[in-house]
Amino acid sequence: MTTVLLADDQRLVRAGFRSILDGEPDLDVVGEAADGAEALTLVRDLRPEVVLMDVRMPELDGLEATRQIVADPALAGVRVVILTTFDLDDYVYGALRAGASGFLVKDTEPMELIHAVRVVARGDALIAPSITRRLISEIAGRAAKPVPNSRLNALTEREREVLGLVAAGMSNDEIAERLVLSPATAKTHVSRILTKLDARDRAQLVVLAYEAGVVTPGWLG
């Protein structure tokens, strides 16, 4: 059973997400918060595996609430998924920097919502590639000029190649197909990269890859 907390100041949004998620036998909505401060309190009390976190909320916004969750060692098992709309793309890169594990658009299809929660709960991907790639294109345009990261020196050439594909929004299966590997081997590469770079999840790998220039889609000067 995957436990989920909903944090959004719109009651109707929370009710809609709850009705979708609670209809699944392996998902359980354990709480709802109407602002970031309440979300933090409930996360510490309930320790959900996944938090669906709105960006714009009273008291404490979703980005700061995410930063505080990620910074708390006692909440290491909590994954945050940011709820966003494409007119809020300015927040996307900040959310990744804050430690968010993925993104959902608020008008997402029910099956995409369910899939995203399951995927993030197991730490296996950065949400559906169809969403990820559109968001990454925005992240790339807003990231600062790349700065060399000495931690990348620990990676093999193959691991750097895999890191670049993770940053492009590819799943393990897609990486395996691209590099002519088995899915298990691709997953092993990603796990080793996470360990070597001391990254929380794939979302952090995306940040590291763009900041270090592993992926360079056209940097601002």
Automatic annotation (TrEMBL):
One of its GO terms (biological process) is phosphorelay signal transduction system. Residues 3-121 form the Response regulatory domain. Residues 148-213 form the HTH luxR-type domain. One of its GO terms (molecular function) is DNA binding. This is DNA-binding response regulator, NarL/FixJ family, contains REC and HTH domains. Keywords: DNA-binding, Phosphoprotein, Transcription, Transcription regulation. It comes from the Bacteria. InterPro entries: CheY-like_superfamily (IPR011006), NreC/VraR/RcsB-like_REC (IPR058245), Sig_transdc_resp-reg_C-effctor (IPR016032), Sig_transdc_resp-reg_receiver (IPR001789), Tscrpt_reg_LuxR_C (IPR000792), WalR-like (IPR039420). The modification 4-aspartylphosphate is found at residue 54.
